[in-house]
Structure formats: structure tokens, C-alpha cells
Amino acid sequence: xxxxxxxxxxxxxxxxRGTNRSRIRFDHPTPLDESGTLPDCLRxxxxxxxxxxxxxxxxxTDESIEHAAEDRxxxxxxxxxxxxxxxxxxxEMGSLHRRMEQLEFADVISGVSLSSYGGVRNVGLLIASVxxxxxxxxLDDDQVVTDPAFLSRALEGLGQADAQNRPVxxxxxxxxxxxxxxxxxxxxxxxxxxxxxxxxxxxALTSALKPPRIKASSLxxxxxxxxxxxxxxxxxxxxxxxxxxxxxxxxxxxxHGGDVFLDSEWPIIHHPPAPPSKAGRFHDDVYRFIYTxxxxxxxxxxVDLRQVSAESLMPYPGHLVDSSVNWRVRATALLRAxxxxxxxxxxxxxxxxxxxxxxxARQNCELYFAFQRRWPMLTDRVWNDIALKSLFxxxxxxxRGALTGRFPMIQAD
Length: 413
Prior knowledge:
Layout: E1 4-12, E2 30-31, H1 38-45, E3 53-60, H2 66-77, E4 84-88, H3 90-102, H4 117-130, E5 135-139, E6 143-144, H5 150-155, E7 170-176, H6 197-208, E8 214-216, E9 224-228, H7 229-232, H8 245-255, E10 261-270, H9 278-299, H10 325-339, H11 343-382, H12 386-392
Parallel strand pairs: 1-2, 1-3, 1-5, 3-4, 7-10
Antiparallel strand pairs: 5-9, 6-10, 7-9, 8-10
Helix pairs in contact: 3-12, 4-11, 9-11, 10-11
């Protein structure tokens, strides 16, 4: 099985060009006037044995820069002629959506888009389906591969049964720093006495890395994830999960009778840029965990799903998605406001953002379940689809210079 490698890459306006007014929120998108971490990721892939097609999906914080971002990614890829790459940008998305309309799946186009983390990963899964891939491996553009046998390790145990006779159809490696440590550094400040996210994460990962090598986990790492056809063609990512779509996939898989496994011998180096705002990151986590809590509660009304509880996700993210999440968020925001230079932002989270996040969760969590019920039918219809495959294999090419907004300037005589 030669896996299709999918790398989502996220871009924003040049620094000082309205970055703060972005329509779509991503954690740390790369400004157009920088190269970011993508070149290091691609360079590390050059030494990987058995590497086949690499799909690079270009997502942006504002649609007005989507063509410029694609050009920037193409420019970076030109430095790696030895890689067999496919860029998925606005032209490919247009073709994909039109084909979905032809196949009578227009109602789920919103869940296969470049406007959310889950939507971007669903795009990768559909491209893998079109290419007829038995396995898809996700990398993030801020990961560095150091093991030439990286893909071989990705396939070890995949599609087989574990010691408890459970099929291993989805598995993840784990992130380390350059020194090989898997722990998030530092200690929890006193202001996080009711949150303790770093401590909970470190406890969960340390426990998951104990023998046996491959075992079911409540953690998942989207930047080092391998999905077998029997999993990704049946279970989608949640496009309405604000962030943490990889751990959310654990919930999705369990609801449909599966598990995501963690491989303690499949590490990858993570080089995440520092978040521009700690309050901004907390803001997104508020939406994330309140949404997950609501999703778990709503799923109890779905008689065709296996029930997943916060207790089964302990210690992380279980402690942050149980019924205490709302008061934990408010208390943490108020405590952080005392000692942070982002006092106003934290006060806003405590007073305004929490009810907004609750409203978002109520309005959107049921959308995933309707989308998911259509997903297996969609992947079945596009599997080895001739119309799309000719585009994604390079047999049919799009003249990008002819796309609206990219015509060459005509000089007057």
C-alpha cells in the first residue's frame, strides 16, 4: 500500500495588510511575504523511502488572497522537483464542488471546503478517494520527518487487529521537540488552577506512550496521522469543530464503532510558531471544548451511534469537555485577566464569548451528524472517479492564468 500524503498549509495576508481582519481563523497561518515552515517539511520528505504522491492543500484566511497563496506555494514547490506534488487550490476546489453537484451532493459541499480545519482534511480525504488510495497520511506543514522509514512505520499494524481483536484503521504518531521530548514545557500558572490543559495533555500522552506499542487513545495528532480506506471512507472530520479536529476525530471514530490508535514508535518533530495571542488561542479553545461537550450530549439522542462520554476521554480532553466546562472557562478567563496584559480580551471571554460559544454549539453541532450520514455515499461515488482523477493525476491541467482575477495585464499601445 503506497499512501497518499496530504499536507494542509495555511496562509494569510502580508504582515500589516489587515491580518487582524481575516474572515477565517487559523492558529498560525503564514504571511504571504514569508516562507513559513513548509519548505522544512518538504525538505524532510526528500529522504523518505517509498514516497509517492504528495497533495498540498492551500487554505487561506481570506478568499481575496487564495490565488496569491497558491502562487506562493507553487514557488516553494519549485525548489523540490524530486517530489511528486499536487497543489489543491481554488481551481481544483471548483472542479471538486461542481462534480459533487453533478453527483447530487450539493447539500454537503459546505463540509468539504477550505474554510475550517475539518473541512480542509475532508478535502484531503476526498482527493485520496478519487485517487483510489488505500491509505492517506496527513502531515502538517510545521512538522519535520527525521526517519527515512516514516511511511513504513505509518503502515505497520494498519489494517490489522490489535491484541484485543480490534481493527486498527486509524493511527497516529506523536509530536516531539528537537530534543525528543513529547512533553509541553513549563508549569501551569496559578491562574489555570481550574483549567490545567498542559498538565492534562502531558499526563494523557505519557500514559499513551506506555506499552503496548499501538493502543487505542483519546489523543490524536493530525500532523502525523494514517487512515485506512475502511476508516476514512466511512468517517469524516467535523467541519464545524473550531480547532482540535484531530482529537475530535477520535470521538467521531468511536461513535461509529472504531478507535484511533497511538503508535509509540512513530514520532515526528513539531515546529509550531508561537501564537500571536494567548487570549486568542484561549478564545478558540473555549469554542472548541464547549462545542465538543454539546456534541457529546447531542449524540445521546442518536440511536444509531455508539455513545461516547467525557469519562471515556479522561484525562484529556475528558476533563475539559464534561459538564463543568462552562464554569471552568469563566473562572480561568477571570483569573487570567488579573495577571495578563490581555486583560480586556479575557474579560470579554468571560462575559461575551462563553454565551456566544454556547450559541454556536447549539446551532451547529447537529450539522455534523447530517453531513456524516452522507459521507460514506459521497466517498463511494467519487472513488476512482474518472472525471476528477484526470485532474488530480495531472492528465488534465487547468490554465491557471485564465482564471478570473489572474489575467495578464494588457499594455495599451
